[in-house]
Amino acid sequence: MANLLNYIIPLILFCGTPALIMWLCRRFPSLDKIGPIMLLYAVGMVVGNIGILPAEVTTLQEIIPNIAIPLAIPMMLFDCRFSRHEVGKQVKIVTSGFLAVCLAVIFGYMLFGRHISQGAEVGGIISGMYTGGTINAAALQAIFQISSENYILINSYDIIISFLYFVFLFSIGIRLFRKAYRASGCKATAALLNECEAVENVQSKREESLAARLFCRRGMAQLGRIVLLTLLIAGISAGVALLMPEGWFMVVFILLITTLGVASSFLKPVRKFDLSYDVGMYLIYIFSITIASMANFKNLDLATGVNQLAFMTFAVFVSLTIHAIVCRLMKVDADSMVISSVAFINSPPFVPMAAAAMNNKNALLTGLGAGIVGYAVGNHFGVLMTLLLSKL
């Protein structure tokens, strides 16, 4: 019984805290300005580092994200409406994102990377990781056979750096980039901001009545249809992805759940769903606190890994800066730039979280598209970057 409680209590914490945070944000405007995502990240980081979670929580930390994201992505896509100009924008975003990571890793290597063991290989791994994701980093580690100590440091530092990256974006970064793009005459961003303000006003009204709309006969019936369709999409996507060669499961899986989610959004019965986005967002809130609880400051070994930490931090924040500049020059709107940066730096599973933080559900497809390309090309890019860095 005690062992079972070690699973039940953290599960209640991860699944129930978002409801409390949402209620507090509605009750206190100052908290609403910070936003549920940042508050949940903060709670998760604190809970994960004060030693109150049982050892069994690691199982939940692995399972919850792998369930929440594949379900949240289609749910949030059901409520989206898409533009025909998406393909041209995707080409610009992918070009900018890969160029930004390339330049940031090269400069970071020259400043810090050459002073660490297997620096060129580490540079290749973080190049693949910051255009694709952890799955690319694992594949590149197998290719380069870097030491387990180095790889553990890469993953430990990545969690901490990603947290700092999100703190910046979700506290001031999104507003800063929107303001800078609009001030420099980006008409797409100006129009987007007006749309996001309207969406935010609608969402605030919807959130107040979400429980009332959900916990009634009509709401529960709609929730059942949403869950069944989502499970069908996730099941088909996983089944097809399992038939793919080793290493391609995640690429194909994310691609298929995105494609089927978008296709479903054009069906008339699905267009009548008015709960799907809110339910998907709640799953993102659960994902946020769970992921944040995995950050362990005890693994931050500054004494032996200061150059590696500096290398990775430089790569993340300088690539964000370069990506912002290049996207602005190519007339890409601010939200598309930010969400694609999240897709590259943190991988597609974090894209819905960024869309929720921006109150811009239509940016979801932009970020997922960029992330899928990153998954597919990240390994090749990482190998090429290692060859390049070894010549410097």
Key features?
about 400 residues, mainly alpha, about 80% helix, globular
Can you describe this structure?
- It is built from 18 helices and no strands.
- The protein has 392 residues and is an all-alpha fold.
- Helix 1 (2-27) crosses helix 14 (276-292), helix 5 (86-111) runs antiparallel to helix 15 (302-329) and helix 6 runs antiparallel to helix 7 (134-144).
- The termini are far apart.
Concise synopsis of the structure shown:
The chain is mainly alpha-helical and 392 residues long.
Helix and strand arrangement:
Elements: H1 2-27, H2 29-34, H3 36-49, H4 57-78, H5 86-111, H6 119-129, H7 134-144, H8 148-183, H9 187-208, H10 210-214, H11 217-242, H12 249-264, H13 268-271, H14 276-292, H15 302-329, H16 334-346, H17 351-358, H18 364-389
Count of alpha and pi helical runs:
18
The largest pleated sheet is described as: none
Which stretches are poorly predicted, pLDDT < 50 over at least 5 residues?
Answer: none
Inertia-based shape: globular
The proportion of residues in beta strands is under 5%
**Percent helix range:** over 70%
| Cα-to-Cα separation, first versus last residue | 59 Å
Number of strands: 0
SS content category:
mainly alpha
Mean pLDDT equals 85
